[in-house]
Amino acid sequence: MFGPIIDRMLHFNLGKVGRAIVTLIQENMLIFLVLFIAYASCMLYAKYVRTRLIPEKMKDFLISRKASGTLDELFSQWLAERQTWPKYLVVPTSNELWIKPASHMTGNEKMLFYTTDSQKMTENELFTILVKELR
Hints:
Keywords: Membrane, Transmembrane, Transmembrane helix. The chain crosses the membrane at residues 29-49. By secondary structure, the protein is mainly α. The chain has a domain at 41-134. It is built from five helices and two strands; from the N terminus they run H-H-H-E-E-H-H. It has a two-stranded antiparallel ribbon with strand order 1-2. A hairpin with a 6-residue loop joins strand 1 (90-92) and strand 2. Helix 2 packs parallel to helix 5 (123-134). The radius of gyration is 22 Å and the shape is elongated. It starts with a helix and ends with a helix. The mean pLDDT is 83.
């Protein structure tokens, strides 16, 4: 029943290039599925690092330094510490379509608007809140 409708749609709406792309995806479905799963896994891991691991490491850093010094000094020490992190700790890019190493962050990146308010904070804002909590 839907076969003729889909064929008509592919023939009139997509053109030759579109039909070739659809055919390529249909013939290599497993490859595209594996690529999509790998991409989604990388993005989920990056979101986990950004929302869970970085705040935990920040809190451990502040506890080990006993939150002594000015806020700017502590944040610059935190940035220096974060530069030594391994490359497998990744975070989403600013448009959240790909990932980059957490050590390359500047500390002023915000997550996109559809995340919760606690996740929208920049790293600097989160650091300020944690310092106030621990003092």
